[in-house]
Design a protein that fits this description.
9 strands, mainly beta, four-stranded antiparallel beta sheet, three-stranded antiparallel beta sheet
Length: about 100
């Protein structure tokens, strides 16, 4: 599916790589675990806002601000869904990654 990665600010040459995208089915609460890392160049830290499209099209994950050091890997699990808002703030840099 399509994973949309939004940065909270323009991080220039900040590259975000999605390492894996897996759906875990639970009895009541299905969720998606996403493992990613970021190459932030010479910056010591980058704060990125991540939002992910629900593969079922029910909405997007609640965006979270994540602090990442260059090359650091982080996994996100158990995020909640919110209704998709076509008027979501588009002023931030948007990276689209196919997984």
């Amino acid at each position: 599916g399509l994973v949309v990665v939004k940065t909270s600010q323009d991080c220039g040459k900040c590259d975000i790589y999605v390492k894996s995208h897996e759906n875990y089915k639970r009895e009541k609460y299905p969720y998606t675990a996403i493992i990613f890392d970021v190459d932030a160049g010479n910056n010591m830290n980058e704060y990125v806002q991540l939002s992910f499209e629900n593969p079922e099209g029910e909405g997007v994950f609640v965006p979270q601000n994540i602090g990442l050091a260059p090359g650091e890997q982080r996994s996100i699990e158990g995020l909640q869904f919110i209704p998709f808002d076509p008027h979501y703030d588009q002023s931030s840099t948007t990276l689209q990654v196919l997984v």
